Amino acid sequence: MISKLIKSNFKNDFSHMITFFLIMVLAVFMLHTGLAILLGYSTLHKDKKEEYNFADIMVQSILPPEDKEKIEEIINNSEYIESYEKLHPVMMEFSRSKEGAEEDSKNMYDTSDFNLLILPYGEWGEMEAPHFVELSDEEYENPIYISIYFNSNYIKAELGDDVDLKVGDKYYTFQVAGIYESLLGNGLGLTYVSPDLFNEWKTDQDEKLTEARRAQKEKEALESESAALEHTDDLAEDGTEEQPLYDMTLFFMKVSEGTDLQAATGQLTKSFSDHSIRAYAIDVDMIITSFTFMQNMIAAMLAAFAIIITVISMIIIYFRISNSIEQNIVNIGALKALGYTSKQIRLSMISEFSLATLFAIFTGIGASYAVIPVFEKFIRGFSGVEWDHPFDMVSLVITVVLMLGTVVLVSFMSTRMIKKLDPVVALRFGINSHSFKKNHAPIEKTAGPLTWIMALKSVLSNTKQNVILIVVMLSIGIVTTFSVFLAYNCVKDPTHLYRMLQLVGSDVTVSFSDEENVIDDILKLPEVESVWWQDTVEMTVEGYSVYAYIADDWTSISDVNVYEGRSPIYDNEIAIGGSLANTLGVSVGDEVEVSYANTEKKFLITGIEQDSSNMGKDISMVTDGAKHFPTYEPVKDNVNLFVKGHTLNNSKAVVEKIQDMYGDKITGYGNVVETIRTGDEPVVAIAAAMVAVMVAVSLAVIILSLNLLVKTMIIKKQQEIGIKKAIGFSSNQLRTELVLSMLPQILIGAAAGSILGSMWSNKILATLLSSMGIMRSNMEMFPWMAVLSVIFACIASFAIIWIISGRIKRISAYSLITE
């Protein structure tokens, strides 16, 4: 019996159920995809670490043998280190020119420069041994085996491709023979070449290091003789003292079970500092965080969209069921008179929506699994590892329980009124045969065009419809405002995003062959707003490894990302990253201990800053403050600058003028503004994709939700529409009335949502980027963004309602006559 009712319900509500089905497919697709990405990447890297025995901690050292021996002794004596191994790679500088770039170009962005740590193929230890996801069986003349991360971001080649690279001052053609995944090695850029080529590079490196050490000894001997002081500057100019004097050693370590990696790396770095060893420990959790922040942000965005769509769907279910009961009240009375119980009738309605939801779940999850492989390939350059995206039972269960459970609950609550419906009353149309509603805007007393008056009466007499429309459009208003906000700050002018992610996001950077005193001259250029020198070194704060940014005068920089307090001014002050401040439980006015080499000093916190380079673990200080550490030696061979208005024209003009002023003294420059606006940055590309998805989803939700609402309203009012046509109203007049009766609610809802979107957009973005160390977003939010969102919602809604209401043309008074 119930199956017949369910079948009848589907037959009568077929067009409505198709629309509901599509809405649920969209919600399921986004929720399941977000969950699958979030849950998949939450354990992916750690699972691979255990499966392939990847290391927990790494120390990279270019130090004298005695210091390396001391490092090894410290590691051996650390009770939390279970095992370790050493590798001795050769560090080589690689570069790859962009297509069409001039060979002698000094533009840093015309070539992709990166350092790789080279080892002979087949000679690796047990920890961080490469796990090849692609490996060729062919024999190549010059094979190269590279990590997923560096291939995706720099080489960008397929297995077997020829790749032309400049290594040092020579050109090579390599064949990509293998692509591997690891964690610490992936981030370091461990790369494998043929043993013969490695030995050649190793011999060259040893000769250069020997020559550098010899030159250093000669320099020290000359400096010890007062008569030879005049030659010191000559040695400094040839650059030998800036070359590394020793080869590189990598220490990979596994820690004891239960060891806190962050605490262990801090202890190791502190021990090195206590022995005046300039070495730092990096833990795998930090690398994993950097590999997963983008996936987590996208997953959170998809899940949030799914929740919004689900809420809209539930509101529409309630509206649809309650209207269906009112519309079919006679049929319900007849069914009760024939012996159907209220429970059976309710169960048939609940089953109708539940079955549609089940089909939507299977369809949405199927679409999710079809899209995930494409997404995984797109995001692989960020994750550094390959995700096989197996069947995820947890995501499936959560999706089914959340979506189906919500639909069943809302359907159950919406059909409660059927229990109270007496068959006799239902057969006589219940109280609907007598309207006790107030006659709002009586036609005979209200001035104005008839169509407008009818629309006003409809607005004032349909409270339920008004509330539903307002809530739906409020959700859409929030999403579309956030979309416009992202589109402007991340796509139209992505320098806003860049500056939010950096402590100081310079517009132009220039490197010189020597420490040139150029700041005062560059500052005189009319396009320049501020110029500064900046250095970056690794220090420790209360045992945590941090990036320390050093500048002569932070107050001279016009835009520093300090969101609480101020930048340091005096030599006993620092600003500290927000993420690190939260970890340490400190704020402005507190003191922390900063260590560098074997020197420790207390510094006063004057500001809380943000920078994504080290996941929010950073500090900034002035040069006088860094001088408290005797072994610190600043290198001032590069400058950064802001141009006025951060405009592309000004940045181009400044680059040209600086080249004219200094010529061959410039070793390279980077026009950051130009590079970001060309879309070469992957973060900008992903932001653009997210904006496109958000706009498309917003439009889809408007179309589907309004389609369901308008169809329901037309069916509910078809007798009224037929009568109006009989007394002379045209189809276009009735369509106009329908549009006008819905636009006020649409406008109110969209406006309220846009206001909330304006207030929340920066907060939402900061929450999504918090894993990167971004604690505050202060990107541009203009009133026109909210206005544009409202205009988009209103125009889209008007067009959709007008198109859907075309079915009014098919309604006539004669077709509604019952004999």
**Total number of strands:** 22
Helix amount? 40-55%
Strand order of the largest sheet: 3-4-9-6-8-7
Roughly what is the average pLDDT, rounded to an integer? 82
- Dominant shape: elongated
Beta-strand residue fraction: 15-25%
What is the first-to-last residue Cα distance? 28 Å
**What class would the helix/strand composition place it in?**
alpha+beta
Uncertain segments are 226-242, 430-436
Number of helices: 25
Major sheet:
6 strands, mixed, barrel
Instruction: Using the CA coordinates, give the radius of gyration.
Output: 34 Å
Which descriptors apply to this entry?
819 residues, alpha+beta, six-stranded mixed beta barrel, six-stranded mixed barrel, 53% helix, elongated
Short summary of the structure?
The chain is an alpha+beta fold. Helix content is 53%, strand content 17%.
Topology:
Blueprint: H1 2-12, H2 14-51, E1 57-61, H3 65-77, E2 81-87, E3 90-97, E4 111-120, E5 131-135, E6 143-147, H4 148-155, E7 162-167, E8 170-181, H5 184-188, E9 190-193, H6 195-223, H7 232-238, E10 249-255, H8 261-274, E11 281-283, H9 284-327, H10 329-337, H11 342-383, H12 393-414, H13 423-427, H14 450-460, H15 463-492, H16 495-501, E12 508-512, H17 519-523, E13 528-532, E14 534-541, E15 544-551, E16 562-565, E17 573-577, H18 578-584, E18 591-596, E19 599-609, E20 618-622, H19 623-626, E21 638-643, H20 648-662, E22 666-671, H21 672-677, H22 682-716, H23 718-726, H24 731-768, H25 783-804
Parallel strand pairs: 4-9, 6-8, 15-20, 17-19
Antiparallel strand pairs: 1-10, 1-11, 2-10, 3-4, 3-7, 5-8, 6-9, 7-8, 12-21, 12-22, 13-21, 14-15, 14-18, 16-19, 17-20, 18-19
Helix pairs in contact: 1-11, 2-9, 2-11, 2-12, 2-22, 4-11, 9-11, 9-12, 9-15, 9-22, 11-12, 14-24, 15-22, 15-24, 15-25, 22-25, 24-25
